[in-house]
Automatic annotation (TrEMBL):
Enzyme Commission number(s) from the entry: 1.-.-.-
Pfam families: adh_short
Residues spanning the membrane: none
CC per GO annotation: membrane
Domain named Ketoreductase: residues: 7-194
Taxonomic lineage from the root: Bacteria, Bacillati, Actinomycetota, Thermoleophilia, Solirubrobacterales
Single GO MF annotation: oxidoreductase activity
Oxidoreductase found in the keyword field: yes
Enzyme class: oxidoreductase
Homology family: Belongs to the short-chain dehydrogenases/reductases (SDR) family.
Name of the molecule in the record: Oxidoreductase SadH
Length: 281
């Protein structure tokens, strides 16, 4: 038996990437699952694989995490369906690339709606149920970019820094108020997902001009930076939850960057810029 066996675990963004891997990892441990995503085909594929993985019941719903009322209704549906909710994995997220100067407000609003408000919506909607379970956990996925700012990524970095602060505040409140709720913020490094390509495709669809540098950056991420298998990342995250770790770095790259940012607060951006230039060659 593990810490998640038999528990009701909610995973947003479960149709692909880390969310899908989390669903399968939790299913193998015997969890009951409530899975959501905006992509119905991906969601149903995950649900089918989770069922075959030997877990308990699987509930699915197409959901846009930026929809506050939709998330509130979803939490009520899941709690009614299972009778209890133990864990919420606020994982859904998107990336976007553009300079601050050239970015439209709509770009910020879309990324903020999913990456930050989605986490807040999920936490607020499910927290009363998680507290009521008597043995709950809230897991919010930030990023390596929750402590490292990079050019052309202000939308993403702003949300991931904010997720870290929001989650650490939640943890302090749960401890102060005596609730039996663990709280974990997750900082993945380069995970082999489609996030870089999806960001570029979304920029194209919105009419943003795509430069050769943008395409080169996509190749850099896909070929050199996004290396860890999502299943491995999910295992690290779930083990961190099982051991009630407040903060988890996923991958050696995340650990190294975290160390350098803390040790070299005035110089780390220069070092990372130089490293990126070398990798582009």
């Amino acid at each position: 038996m593990t810490a998640v066996a038999g528990k009701v675990c909610v995973v947003t963004g479960a149709g692909s990437g880390i969310g899908r891997a989390l669903a399968l990892g939790l299913a193998r441990r015997g969890a009951r699952l409530a899975l959501s995503d905006v992509n119905e085909a991906g969601l149903q594929a995950t649900a089918a694989d989770a069922g075959r993985a030997g877990g308990g019941a699987v509930h699915t719903q197409v959901l846009d995490v930026s929809d506050r009322e939709g998330m509130t209704a979803y939490a009520a549906t899941v709690a009614s369906h299972f009778g209890v909710v133990h864990q919420i994995y606020n994982n859904a997220g998107i990336a976007h690339s553009n300079t601050i100067l050239e970015s439209e407000y709509e770009e910020y609003e879309r990324v903020f709606g999913i990456n930050l408000w989605g986490v807040i919506h999920g936490t607020k909607a499910f927290l009363p149920h998680v507290i009521a379970s008597g043995d709950g956990h809230v897991i919010n996925v930030s990023s390596l970019n929750g402590f490292l700012a990079q050019p052309d990524m202000s939308h993403y970095c702003t949300t991931k820094f904010a997720v870290r602060g929001f989650t650490e505040t939640l943890r302090s409140e749960m401890r102060r108020d005596g609730h039996r709720v663990g709280v974990t913020v997750v900082h993945p490094g380069g995970i082999k997902t489609n996030i870089a390509s999806a960001a570029l495709n979304e920029a194209r669809a919105s009419g943003q001009e795509i430069t050769p540098e943008d395409e080169q950056r996509e190749r850099l991420y896909n070929e050199k930076l996004l290396k860890m298998d999502p299943a491995q990342a999910a295992e690290i995250i779930i083990k961190a939850v099982e051991t009630d770790r407040p903060r988890v770095m996923v991958g050696n790259d995340a650990k190294l960057v975290d160390f350098l940012v803390r040790m070299l607060p005035a110089r780390h951006q220069t070092l990372f810029a130089a490293a990126e230039r070398r990798m582009r060659k």
